[in-house]
Structures
1.
Amino acid sequence: MTDTPVHPPIIVGAGPAGVRTAETLVAAGLRPLVIDEAARWGGQIYRQPPEGFHRPKRALYGFEAGKADALHRAMAGILPAVDYRPRSLVWNIESGALDVTPNDGLKGGRSETVPFSHLILAPGATDRVLPFPGWTTPGVFTLGGSQVALKFQGCAVGSRVLFLGTGPLLYLVAYQYAKAGATVAGVLDTSGFADHARAVPGMLRDPGTFAKGVYYVGWLRAHGVPVHSGVRPVRVEGDGRVEALVWRRNGAEQRTVCDAVAFGLGLRPETQLADLAGCRFRFDAMDRAWVPERSAAGRTSVAGVYVAGDGAGIAGADAAEMAGERAALALLEDLGRPVDSARATLLEQKLAASARFRRALTDAFPFPADWAASVPDDTPVCRCEEVSAGTLRKAARDGEAAEINRLKALTRVGMGRCQGRMCGAASAELLAQALGTGPDAVGRLRSQPPVKPLPFSAGILDEEKAS
Amino acid sequence: MTARFEMERLEADVAIVGGGIVGGSAALFLTRMGFKVALLERDWCGAKASGVNYGGVRRQGRPPEQLPLSQRSHAIWGRLPELVGIDGEYVRSGHLKLARNEADLASLVAYNKKVETFGLGLEIIAGEAFRARYPALGDRAVGGSLCPEDGHANPRLVSPAFARAAAKAGAVVREQTAVDHVERTGNGFLLRCTSVGGDALEVRSRILLNCSGAWSGRLAESFGEPVPLSSAHPCMAVTEPLPRFLDVNIGVEGGGVYGRQVERGNVVVGGGRGFALDADRARPARNAVLTLMGEAVDLFPQLRHAHVIRTWTGVEGYTPDRNPIIGPSATTPGLFHAFGFSGAGFQIGPAVGEALAELVRDGHSSAPLDTFSITRFAKADPALSVAAPAGH
């Protein structure tokens, strides 16, 4: 056991999990390196506007303003005690070192190799995209994307926005849009009233969160926003720009005029870095996704590598803060440092309670299990490589692809810019449905570097050519 | 806990271990000749080196002893849709090998002389004529050698298609089925296999083809003929779709980067090596990727503002002399080998499959195979480890 690590601990991600991890390590006298893709800390949920933008936190984060403010202050308070590298993309992990480039889009810059002995991955999550006809029409956004537009730069994705999907975020973002002055054309929930009712007992485990959900729905209704449950999207109408969404409920089609659609059917964890680090994975039935195996403390199967937050399995921002702190304590334990074991136990208990609440949420906002069977053949699933649902089904039914990497090889799905981050979940669902099995039985997309597109400016010539 | 596994038995004239482009095409040609074929693939057919290589379909640059087979393969590629039912994105774009200096140009001229009797139609282009013909390559080279009918294809599609066509023609193709044990019996071979699902399969055959790529050495060794085969992992990268600027498959004399642009506009570049994760899997190495990117943008300035969206590698078997092993076993009647293509098996693979089929049917092939005999390594000490080759 050693008391001083060879390298400073590295935290990837500066959202709720990453910030609390850093705070805990700093409190123990370590100086972690915090690497984050964004320009400012806060993650997606507590994303800060660019410097110079001044909007009150109450307007940006609603009921969560207090939490956002606390997290922002926590990081601001430890800034002198951490090495903070914003706007930096970790594009690879290999042999105990990270590869990092400036996250400046096309401009990029040289790649730097940063060795680590202890690594906490807190990369967060993105929207889970389940395509429907017309979803690639300009004006259709993911729910998370439309929230980011509002939080980051104070713009709305349209002036008359229709919200579609499921999950607590659906109502929250609709509420935030309405408060920000946009017209909310409606909130269309793919889950049914019966789902919500059945889940109430479990949701009451966290009465605060439950009450907020009830409040948002009530507020929206009171302000004349149509709210419907048990909805299925039929198609987006509009040539070159969203003009309306046609949707179905109880067998009847309806049409809602709008200039933007924000849709979200839950989140998917970002797991590529854990994969590149060599972590073992397991299939999580609630997330319907492969996630890195981890102990209650956040240890993965790889010594010295920890995971926390939604990137380790969807649990929400509050749980991410606790998981970040717990993983930091695990790291300190592994360094042989004294830690407050009562605090560690308490965090684990709270995380377990949070997981129970999360199960209730999954009951209330279930995955639309009929999606894979009902999405039309000509609907594009992979935008980058223009692969349709029909192409994927055909490869599965012809017996050519019984596994997701094989499906990728034969159809190009997941081979484009997003590397399956956007289309992977939908492809696995389609493949599983076509094969008459579940998404757990069709394998896991293998990660390869780079985890996101890497500008050629990262490249190097050998000495002789460079001179 | 006891599990009940099905035990299945198969009889075949020919058992083929390995469903890559060589095993798959051998299965196809043998089935068409009327043989009963069982093709056994541990992964998915064409999922290993055959399916994840760069995709060059190139005769130019091969040593003369490979050219008779390579020329036969050229003819087979010409009727790909008829053979395997897809075009596999195969285009005869031409293969241009660049010379970055006069010495390299001289060696391209020397190669041109050496292979002129084989009919590749090579054309040396240099100076003003070169710049006029390939303005996109700017002043990156002093000239080059063009093989107009060479080209490129999509290996992910082409290689599995051979095994699929064989299955359609009547071959028994078993994917996700590992061959655990092979033995010589009185009148042929017995192969004990296990599927990923745990089912046991027993295959009896008169003839056995060893086409298992980088993993072929073990089977050869079990029949008393070890070969100094090593594994290496050529590194590849691809960009997002870009405006078309490259209509020819590019190589560089003396090695280094190579590149091609596909119909969709993506540019595929290769060069350098990945590293092994274990015996079956490999990943591109950071230094190889970064060096490849630097060299690629140096060769193709059009990539300056582009991105690499994906990198990959595979597991390929290399021999010390970089020539494959093709032909009958020296120890075991009925056993034939075809492996060790050393990073250059994709183009030649279909002709090798055809030659194997001829060997099985006639006892000899109309293509000269003597150079590729496994006996050339008979005196090699199998304990000597062979360093992974560098460059392409």
2.
Amino acid sequence: MRKGTLILISLLLPFFITGCFDSHEIGDFAYVTAMGVEHGISDTFRITFQISKFSKSSGGNGENEGGGGEKNEEMEIITMDSSSLLSAVSIVNANISKELNFMHLKAIVISEELAENGKLGECLAPIVRYRHIRRTTNIIVCKGKAEEFITALMPYPGELITRTLEELFEKSNTIGYFPHTTLNDLYDGIKSSYNALILTYGAVNKEEKFESDGEFFKGESDVPGNFNAGDIPRKGGSKVELFGSAVFDGEKMKGKLTGFETQMLLLARGELIRGPFSITDPEKPELMVPIDIKEIENPEIMIDLNEDKPKIHVKLKLEGDIASIQSGINYETPEKMTIIEDALEQHLIKGIEITFEKCKEFKADVFNFGTTAVMQFWTIPEWEEYNWLGKFPESELKVEVDFTIRRTGKLLKNKPLFSLEDKK
Amino acid sequence: MIREGNFGYHEAISLLAITILAKTFFTSPAILVGIVGTAGWYMTLISALTAMFGFMFLYLLLKRFPNKNIMEIADMVLGKLGSIIFLFLFGGFLLWSASISIREFAEVLKVYVLPQSPPSFIIILFLITIIVLSFMGLETIARFAKFIIYILGVGFILVFLLSVQNIAPRYLFPLLGYGLDKTIIHGLLRSSFYGEIVIIGVIASSLQGYKEIKRIGFSTLLIAGFLTSFSLLVFAMIFPYPVGQEITSPMYEMAALIDYGGFMQRMEPIFLFLWNFGTFIEVSLIFYATLMIFCHAFRIDDKRPVILPMITTLYSLSLIPKSISEVTSGFVQTLRSWGWIVYYVPPVIILIIALIRKKKGDSQNA
Amino acid sequence: MLKGLKNLFVYKKPSENGFRFPEDPQESDRWSSYRGKTRNLQDNNESDNSRNHRNDNQDQYNEKGQNNKKDKKHEAKHDKRDKTEQARIIKPIPVKKLVKTVNDEGKKKDSTEKSQESNNEEDTGHKGLTKNKDNDTESNENQKKENSGGSNKKDKKGNSQNDSPEQKENDIKVSSSIDENINILKDIFHLPVNQDVIIREFKIAREIEACVVFIDGMVDKSIIIQFTLPQLMDPCALDGFEGECPIDFLEKNVLSIHQVVRMDNYQEIVPQVLSGLTVVFIDGCDECLVMESRGFEKRDISVPSTETVVNGAQEGFTENLRTNITLIRRIVKNEALVTEFKIISKTNNIIAALLYMEDITNKKIVDEIKRRVDSLNIDYISGSGMLEQLIEDKSLMLFPQVISTERPDRVASFLMDGKVALVCEGTPFALAMPITFFDLFHTSEDSNLRWQYGTFLRIVRLIGTLLALLLPGLWTALILFHQEMIPTSLLASIVISRTPVPFPFIVEFLLMEFSFELIREGGIRVPGITGNTLGIIGALILGQSAVSAGLVSPSLIIIVAVTGLGSFTIPNYSLALSVRIARFLLIGFGAFAGLYGVSVGFVILCALSLGMKSFGVPFFTSIAPETKSSRDKIIRGPLHNQNQRPDYLNTQNEKRMGDNPRGWVTSKPGGDRGNDQGR
């Protein structure tokens, strides 16, 4: 009987003291979905919180969604200057009715200046300790003001901002113009002895590069995507764009890679599963041949550490489909196919080499070659003594690409266009 | 003395393996990475082998005295006073290790899940569970372990399978960590990680004979060694060694890192349950073993009245450490590095004394 | 079909109380002598004998005659049983009384045989007669008649000359004077105040004074009107009779009733009258004739209402014990199926039948159940539900420890597994024990369907059960404590739906869960067909208007509804109820300490249920502790692979089928049937 009473008491106990310490009503929080950090004017940092208000229009049931007109009502932007994140949070909490909650923080935006001044470790690394912030939070380095970026960061109509960002970042694997970077990567990158840190680069597109009037374009096109966020000649759509990447040495931003270079980088790292590439037509250089590329095997990386300068050998194995041939030349025949293949191989080798040179300049091993080099060391002390990151700028790279065209799209062959001018 | 119920091979293995494995969920892996770097996953295999060696002596002892548990053997071999002193020290040590497990659990839980709840709240709730389990007896604890192992197994596999996306085998290099010598020395010392295997000696009379004990002991060590090694391997592949040693509960972070976009993210509840159930079983087994030892030492037949005072002791013990740092780098570290002295040495000593004094169990062929 | 069944049950219930009415004198003699023998041997084979004879009876009535083949064999089997032990199993009979009984026998040679008979019957737990030796019982009978045991006893005391009431009551014999008998009867049945009992006086063949006694409504009137009175009152009824007491002549030559037996002791007679038999007293005879004439109203067999299946038998138990046993026997047509009858309550004399397979069931289980049933000392039991509570291991435990089922086919399969069934008068449910969680979790449909479908259904049910148990607790924990663990888009919808709700979450949740329970309970209690509609309409209206009134959030309604649906998938009503209660517990724990609290609650729940035993069998047997089982937990293997009976029952015969249950698989097509199936 005593046993029974004891069990009963232990079972009933919870009901008497229901709702303890950590229990919170779900509506008591203001869910911060994005946060910006930059140099402050009146204090060290200027911190911007983007709070999702989870109104009817942003939820799953978009019945009341009238369009993109009243978008600003879904978000609340609070910006303040403060010495640290936590003090900013407590001050903001004192001024709004709800409590800031970072559990659903999806993106942290850092201004480029802050990153260049090497304040990354100072402001961001400590927040890994902060329980609410997850390691899967995405990190973006933005051009200009983070505040502006956060204000412009708007969800796709009818969606939650988190979902929009999630879907956006997933593109990294399939297009590769920017890397998918999280707080976990940032932390690893800062602390790691294997590789350097690379972060997504983003900007608010002010539509400056888009010229509505002017002369028609003439000359040779550049490689597609060879620019950074903010410089894309486009109009409409989301104001915010992610393009290219910021390269760090330790916690200091050294420079940025363009979208194309990022693509090359991810290709060499084996992170770009598939993506579209365009090469200039070998026979008509003013036209392009877009090709869908698939990386079928992880890149084979060999590093020779015996000499003074590390010699790196990268071998990529790709296959792809021709998406279109602007020139109309019949590249589908086996003989001509090799021309395309060779052209693409050369294109990629050149791209990777350019990127590599750029990274050497930045003294940042964003290619993760260090993780291959480490295999030649037995113990951690040996490895740390060798100081790979220090040796990286002296290294030499040799790239080899093996590309095969598998399919040619919906057309099996390409008959020349019939035009009177050609007949003459 | 009231007989504990009997239980079989599966129950015993579940019970002991969970007890051993529950520790990987907490701060140990991180500290391990701090010591041996990337070599943790095979270091633990060395530990498991060492533990098997240590367990062999216990097994020899139990074989010499068939159908007796370690308390009865101690009575026979060491004499009344000697046995009481030995049992008191051994039981005290087990109780202390249980208190550390509880405190570690409470602290880590507080860090990750219940930041505003005071540790005493978490610990009291924990102890209520332990009281209920202890009241139900060893048989129920064993059955609970067997029952829950399905849930734990599914959760474990799920967490590790889903973690595949974050795995980078390159983080395993350099293979030897901070040096082979360091790895081996710590591997030997850390055999204390598997020290709970000696509880098999305490519950020996509930198991079916020494042959079964041999089977259970070695399979438990094998399974626990393999699973620990596996989880350390996965953990080492997810966090590079400089980061890995900083994280409070690497396994929890590992689960939190799982993100397949949209809905397949935020998987830590699965892990939370692994954590809770595992620790409940771990502590209740250690606690119950302590209970059995003390009750035997002081010739108490009914354990139930002793449970509450013992729980109170456990509670006070668990509140002794000042902070999480003291728990993790002080107490847990000491326990893992030097626990083997308490776990594996006494059976050897008792065995030697028994050999010298030519004491033997009554029915050798049983 | 049903009509035919009904007839079968009405007219072929020769031994509802376990008492056998011998058919012809030869057999009667044989039986008597056999009894004498067994008594001398101090051996208690009565249960077997009676069973065998009952089988005989059934054989004769029930022209199919499958049940009676191996009398001898079984007699032999049970010689081992210790008589005294058996006697104690039935009822704690004070030693004094036993001694007295024996003394009586010694004194009155002429009634020795009857005493023996009754004594034996008592041993084996046969119905009314069992009681007669027992003082308590008798006073209970009295109580029934008058609601006051004390005064009854006094009455009795006044009537008879013996010193002690027990003695006196044991000794009321049928007098040879009809007037005295009528006076005694009037006294016993409190006539003329009590108007239920009819004493019809008449003359046999216009010569001998006689009377019939029966209770109005309990008897089939046609037996009295057509087959008793006309024949007895026929002027030629006594043609060819010579002598003093015509009772033997009448029994053998005049009365064309299928079961007639002679009795001489009121303690035996009264319970028979109470259970609907008709008694004929004849002037000049110190015995009377007890005729089978039961014919009270009862419900037809209908479709089981709480355990419906799509594919499977559609018969459910009724309130009538005999019908129920017949339903089981019709499925288990085997001589090894033993039915033992026991009176389990003291005042209302409810009879329960204990069924088990003689050659399968572990005797220890049977003995334990008998021990528990026999030791009951309670005035009133209304049926199996009350019996269940009285014999279960631990009344504090949440989960049922005895399964209560409405389906004869389930009982039959339990019996064939080696379990013991208890069928009780008064409720259309049978109990089976010992059980495990999986017995509560399975339905009869599972094994009727092919294993793929059966497994699928079980998985659905498992998910339903887990949802019903855990979902509310987990939801509470997630909402109140672990907002970070909810995917953001889900969180958004929850936040949106909760915005207009004025209550704290836990109040809202409990309100909703409680309303759901109200609908369920209300739906059952509302009279008539309104009940069903109330459930649906109530849920719809309540949910819809609660949402539109802004009292609860739509997301919560879905959780409550899913929980409710989940609990409906649990096939056993008791288990479903326990899950419904446990879920509130987990809500409490969830609101108390989040997921940590839920896991604490879950562990406590698990510990309690894992430590629980049903007649010595742990609740989660075959998972924890692990036992051999032939793939019949959640995943059900193909039927022909399930060749083992449950290991935990330690049955005498562990194999359920031959080594090659499907002989045709190995035999040549078109060749021998190779049928090697076990029984």
